[in-house]
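To: structure subgroup
Subject: Chain for Friday's discussion

All,

I'm putting the inputs and outputs inline so they're searchable in the archive.
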Amino acid sequence: MQTVSYNPTRRAFLALAAVVGVLAATPFTAVPPAAAETPKWVIPVAEAKQLISGGAIVLDVRGKALKEEAPLANAVSVEWPYFTKDNKAQKGQLLDDDAELTKRIQALGISADVPVVVVADSVKGWGEDGRIVWTLRTLGHPSAFFVDGGIAALTKDGDPGIKPVAGNGSFEVKRLADYEVKKEELRQLLGSTNVVILDTREPREYAGETPYGESRGGHVPGAKHVFYKDFLDANGDVLPPDQIRAKLAALGASPDAEVISYCTGGIRSGFVTAVLNNAGIKAKNYAGSMWDWSSADATEYPLVTGAN
C-alpha cells in the first residue's frame, strides 16, 4: 500500500532553468509588478486532468444514489457530514475539534502538498463540491479545487485515469478565519454598510417555508435572495466572473463589498462562497445557516417572512 505523493521539485527546477536562460539572453527592462492573481477555487476539466495525472487526490462528494448511478473509479468517497457536528441544530457547522478533523482528513489520504480535486454532480447535486472545497480551504488546505461542470464534464471523454489512494495523508488542520462567519458575527453585521448577505435557498424557503426541518421560517433581515444555481449555466458550468459580478451588482453589492452567504446547512452557500472567491470577490460562508440561526432565540436572531 502506498500513499500518493506529489513532488514538484523537478518540474520547478526545469521551469527555473528555462527562466534563467531567457533572462540571461534578454536585456534588463524595468517592469511594474503585476496585479495579484485571483486564487482559483474552480478549475476547468483540462486542468483537473493534469492534476489527476500528477497524483492529485480526487474526492467524489456526491450522495450515495448518484455515486451508484455513475461510479467514479478510484476516487475517494466522502460526503459533507463527515466534517460536521451530529446535533441537528448544529449539523452544518464544522467540528470544533481540530485533532479529530485532522484525523478524519488524513484518513482520506490528504496531505497539504498534494492537490485535492473535488467532484460532484452540478445538475443533480446540491453544490457539495463547493462546500467541500470551502471546508478544506477553511481548514487550511491551499490547493483544493472543484471541477467546473462536475462529474459529467470530467468523464465526458472517458475514464479520467484517477490513481488509487492507499494509506493516510499528513495534512494537519490550521483554520483560517477568512472564509467563515458564525451566527454571533453575522448578527453584529446586520445593517452594516458594504456587507451583503445572500440567502441562496429556493424562493419558497426565503419566503418562510421550512422543508428541511428548520425550527423557524423566513430569512435573515436584510438578506438578498439569489438561488445558488443562478451562478451556473444550463450545463452546470460556473458563469464567467464578469457575469457573477454583474449579478451581485444588481443586488446592490459594490465591487469591494464583503459577501456572506447562507442556506439551510451551509452546503449551497458553501458552493456560492467558493464560486465568489474564485471570481475575486471577498466571500464568507455561514456554515450553521438556518438550522443554526432558527434554533436560537427569536428576539436576538430574528427572521423575516415574505418575498421581500
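Points worth raising on Friday:
Confidence is low (pLDDT under 50) at residues 1-36.
The CA atoms of residues 103 and 148 lie 29 Å apart.

D.
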